[in-house]
Structure formats: C-alpha cells, structure tokens
C-alpha cells in the first residue's frame, strides 16, 4: 500500500502541469523511516489524489512521479505499458533497416524517472540513475524482455551522478549473454560499440542527427574531429567524401576504436589520420587556418551548478583556440552536453570566443536533443545537448 503525503496548496502547480519531480519543500511533512523505492501517493490539502511516484531520498528531490492515474498500480504491467509506448515511437520514427540502435527509454521523459535504456542491435545497455528505481529492477527487466525481446541486457549504472552521491552503481549482465562489443547500423553506416567498457552506455546516440547534418558540409573538406571518442563524426565525414579526416582523443583505446570504425566502413588511407592527444594541447600547438571543418564535442565541462563559472571558461577557451584553426568561410561545429549551461549562455560564450579570436560567427544550423531523446515540455531540467554549426570568417 502506498504512503500518502500532502503537498502544500501553493506547490501543486508543477505536479498538475506534468513536472516529474516533487521537491521536499513542497511536501507538508515527510515521516521518518521511508526507504528508497517506497510507493508514494501525493494528495492536496483536501485529500484529492495528484500523482503516484516513488520515494528516492530525504534530499532535495523527494519523490519522482510515475503516474497521474490513481487506479494505476506500479507493477510489471505498468512498466510493460510504459516501455511498449516508448518503443512504438522509436519504431515509427527512428529505427529502420538502416538504423538498429536508439535510446528506448529516456528517463523522466518516457515516464520512468531514473531509467535510461539504449538499444544496440539485439542488445540493451541500461542505467539506473536512482537507488529508488532499483527496487523495481526485476519488474523492469521482465518488461524489457517481453517488449523489446533482446538477446541480452547489460547494466551500466556506474554513472557519475550516482558516484557523486556515493550510491554505487552496478556493471553486470542482467539477462541473457552480452558480448563485449556489438556492431550496430546508423543511417547505413556501421559502428562497433563497446558496451561493457565504453563511455556512458557505449555510444553517443544523441548525436545521430548532427552526424548526418555534417555530411552536408564535409565533401572535399579537411575535417578535424576533436574529442572523437569512437569516431562517429569522422565516419560520417569520410562517407560524405571529405578530403581528409583527423580524429583526436586523449584516450588511446578510443582512438583505436575510431580507427576500427573507419576501417569497418572501408575508409583506409593516408588521408585518414589519428592522434592520441589532449585536445587543449593540440589546439594550442596546431598551425593557424589549417582546417575547413573543426568539430568540438567535449565531455560535460559543468558537472554541477557550483562549477558553472569554471566550465564556461573551459568552453570559451577551447572554442577560442579552435577558431584560430578554421580557414576563412570554414565551419566550426561546437557542442555542449552540460545541462547547467543554457543555450543563450552557450551562444554568449561563443560570441566572446569569436571576439577574442577576431572571428565572426554565423549560425547555420542549431540542434538540441534527438528524436529518441524526447523532452517533456515542463521538464526543462532535461535539456542538455546543444550543437551549433557555424560559418567562420575573419572580422
């Protein structure tokens, strides 16, 4: 039986508006002894049902909402329904005979707060971002098996957000058998995904549309892909007929995987080069105006709101250094995956980088989340990815 908690009358608005988080300050009183994962019914001061979710902790976000229907119970059938609905959208708009990898569950945005599930061919890689949701792990795994029918499921809950809260996080096979590496298709191109040891869940699915967009600019151009990881942008540039492609990453294993992915798609030759190097060092030492297209897709520089100033400085510096390398009328592709950096603030720091480097920047295309990374309109906290394609010229 669910525990009922009362929400202050002035704090019911976000719940009625569909926001999936309920902060501790919105609740009249939270009794002692609640455990993570306990089912909570939220009611207004008149006892009217508002929503049902799970208790996560006594910290700022106390309850994460699962349903707004009082008759709906949190059981395996509930998770089966949510997963089937999410997969239906991906099957209609993302998956095809040319693409067999996508995000199936995007946490709060698909109605299961704290859960991320990525599909790589016949296998799933998932993350439990909150200990509260782990209480329902067996139900969720059974539902995923029933709906998606994978050959195997691997857990990658060793995420930074959990480690920062000292919540641990598993890395193990949950169902079937999962190979160390899986080959996927994306827009007809082939990639090897390191599910067990790779970054995040193994591959950056959220940049699919941006990789495709790059092909409209890359033919006959010299392209440098910084923070290349497994070479996603590099493969797309080569497929578009780039004159040369250089992949740069500080991780030797990432560069090896990038090279393997290039070769997997038939891109072998002296025009395709790879460099194990700190990107900041490379940008400082490279010669001026040496590239037509520069891609800057770094990891999140802002891990928390306490690091915003430091992170902004980091983004501004790499873009300033990078702009020096871009030829007249060349293209800078600049990305930020920091949720604590707004789009307007990202534009502002890019403007500052342009001013400091004596460059004028003209936005040609702007991208945010991908279609398999949908966002609930009221849940603005989920906005994180920003990718700008910009034309560059000297002032």
How would you characterize the overall build of this protein?
The structure is a single chain. With 395 residues, the protein is α/β, with parallel strands linked by helices. 29% of the residues lie in helices and 30% in strands. It has eleven helices and 19 strands. Strand 6 and strand 7 form a beta hairpin.
In short:
This protein has 395 residues and is an alpha/beta fold. It has helices at residues 13-16, 76-93, 131-134, 137-148, 160-164, 208-218, 232-239, 252-264, 279-285, 308-323, 343-357, and strands at residues 3-6, 21-23, 39-43, 49-55, 61-67, 101-106, 115-120, 123-128, 152-156, 171-176, 181-186, 189-194, 222-226, 244-249, 272-276, 291-296, 326-336, 359-367, 386-394. The strands form four sheets. A seven-stranded mixed beta sheet has the order 15-14-13-16-17-19-18, sandwiched between helices. Strands 1-3-4-5-2 form a five-stranded mixed beta sheet. The chain has a five-stranded mixed beta sheet with strand order 6-7-8-9-10.
């Amino acid at each position: 039986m669910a525990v009922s908690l009362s929400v202050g009358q002035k704090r019911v608005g976000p719940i009625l508006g569909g926001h999936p988080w309920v902060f501790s300050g919105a609740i009249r009183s939270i009794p002692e002894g609640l455990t993570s994962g306990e089912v909570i019914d939220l009611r207004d001061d008149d006892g009217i049902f508002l929503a049902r979710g799970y208790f996560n902790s006594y910290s700022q976000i106390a309850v994460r909402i699962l349903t707004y229907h009082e008759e709906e119970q949190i059981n395996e059938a509930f998770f089966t329904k949510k997963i089937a609905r999410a997969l239906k959208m991906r099957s209609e708009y993302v998956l095809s005979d040319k693409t067999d990898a996508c995000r199936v569950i995007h946490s709060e945005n698909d109605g299961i707060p704290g859960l991320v599930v990525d599909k790589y061919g016949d296998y799933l890689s998932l993350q439990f971002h909150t200990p509260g949701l782990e209480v329902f792990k067996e139900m969720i795994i059974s539902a995923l098996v029933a709906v998606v029918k994978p050959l195997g499921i691997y857990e990658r809950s060793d995420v930074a957000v959990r480690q920062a809260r000292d919540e641990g996080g598993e890395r193990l096979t949950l169902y079937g058998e999962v190979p160390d590496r899986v080959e996927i298709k994306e827009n007809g191109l082939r990639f090897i995904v390191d599910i067990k040891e790779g970054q995040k869940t193994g591959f950056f699915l959220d940049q699919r549309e941006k990789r495709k967009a790059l092909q409209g600019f890359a033919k006959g151009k010299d392209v440098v892909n910084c923070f290349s990881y497994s070479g996603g942008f590099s493969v797309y540039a080569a497929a578009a007929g780039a004159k040369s492609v250089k992949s740069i990453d500080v991780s030797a294993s990432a560069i090896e995987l990038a090279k393997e992915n290039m070769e997997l798609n038939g891109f072998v030759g002296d025009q395709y080069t790879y460099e194990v190097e700190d990107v900041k060092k490379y940008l400082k030492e490279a010669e001026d105006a040496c590239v037509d297209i520069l891609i800057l897709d770094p990891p999140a520089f802002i891990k928390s709101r306490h690091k915003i100033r430091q992170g902004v400085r980091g983004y501004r510096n790499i873009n300033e250094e990078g702009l020096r390398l871009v030829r007249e009328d060349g293209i800078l592709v600049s990305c930020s995956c920091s949720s604590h950096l707004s789009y307007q603030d990202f534009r502002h720091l890019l403007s500052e980088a342009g001013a400091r480097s004596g460059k004028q920047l003209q936005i040609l295309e702007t991208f945010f989340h991908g279609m398999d990374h949908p966002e609930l309109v009221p849940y603005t906290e989920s906005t994180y990815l920003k990718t700008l394609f910009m034309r560059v010229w000297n002032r």
